[in-house]
Design brief:
The chain is built from seven helices and six strands; from the N terminus they run αααββββββαααα. It is mostly helical and 297 residues long. It has a domain at 83-227: f41 fragment of flagellin, N-terminal domain, CATH 1.20.1330. β3 and β4 form a beta hairpin. The protein starts with a helix and ends with a helix.
């Protein structure tokens, strides 16, 4: 069977284009650093790449939630620490002013200090983090602070009992807030206790002052108990953060192993393919030249 010049030319052209396509693919891998640049490069590999990227996006969101929760809880812990310090001072006042060495005058002065302590704790109970009232339940962004008082030092809670949670894993949530009702008036009404201490000092009633020492102790323990709870939640978030950091590294490695090109291997293939391509060009040129001369004759 006679092979025509046209058939030879078609075959050479197809081979030349195929070698050129392979050369371009290798050059693209080197420029992108990726073994898979489109689904057709490796359909199964591309599916794994998309799955890994989706998982990395989920991990990123979990880590963002964890960071948000950690900051909220650490701010809460700091506020509760300040409340503890103020209650400690209130106890010192009560203990000293309940003794016989104190006088009506010293108790009146102490009453003024207790008023200041009361107002400082109110201010702390109305603390904000990034514009959010941290002890208001769900009422975090209202114009109304969670706590207020009247002229007689009667405190009112204006928040709710909502629990704010962050998702730190699939089906895994952590509550990051404490509402004001549980912290400041669940077992011991801290504001009522301070009001009674103020009034007992103003009334020069050492017996009543002495009886409030135990209540102030309970209030102090109440705050410390919530500080411990906040600390436990922070530890839980930090554990989740460490888990996701390690898992993120593993997924990034799996993604790299699946998607990234071995540049040394690709460079070797490129040099080899360039040689093949140059040989194809040279061979095609040798065949085309006689055929063209024959055609001109």
């Amino acid at each position: 069977m006679r092979v025509s010049n046209r058939q030879i030319m078609d075959t050479m052209t197809k081979n030349l284009f195929r070698n050129e396509k392979r050369l371009l693919e290798l050059q693209n891998k080197i420029s992108s650093g990726k073994r898979i640049n489109r689904p057709s490069d490796d359909p199964l590999g591309m599916k794994r790449v998309l799955d890994y990227r989706k998982l990395l996006a989920q991990i990123k969101q979990y880590k963002k939630n964890i960071a948000y929760g950690e900051t909220w809880l650490k701010d809460t812990e700091s506020v509760l620490g300040s409340v503890s310090d103020l209650l400690r001072r209130a106890k010192e006042i009560a203990v000293y002013q309940a003794t016989g060495t104190s006088t009506a005058q010293t108790r009146e002065i102490a009453a003024q200090e207790v008023k200041n302590l009361y107002d400082q704790i109110i201010q702390l109970a109305n603390s904000k983090w990034k514009g959010n009232f941290i002890f208001a339940g769900y009422q975090t962004k209202t114009n109304l602070p969670p706590f207020s008082r009247d002229e007689d030092y009667n405190a009112t809670y204006q928040g709710d009992t909502g629990k704010i949670e962050v998702i730190v894993g699939e089906g895994n949530k952590v509550t990051i807030n404490l509402h004001g009702q549980e912290v400041f008036s669940q077992e011991v009404d801290i504001f009522l206790t301070l009001k009674e201490l103020k009034e007992s000092l103003e009334n020069n009633d050492p017996e009543m002052i002495g009886s409030l020492v135990e209540e102030i102790d309970k209030a102090f323990n109440q705050i410390d108990r919530y500080r411990a709870e906040v600390g436990a939640r922070i530890n839980r978030l930090e554990s989740a953060e460490n888990y996701w950091n390690n898992f993120n590294l593993n997924i990034e490695k799996a993604l790299s192993d699946t998607e990234d090109a071995d540049l040394t291997e690709v460079m070797t293939d490129l040099l080899s393919q360039q040689a093949v391509y140059q040989a194809s060009l040279a061979t095609t040129a040798r065949i085309i030249q006689p055929s063209l001369i024959d055609f001109l004759r």
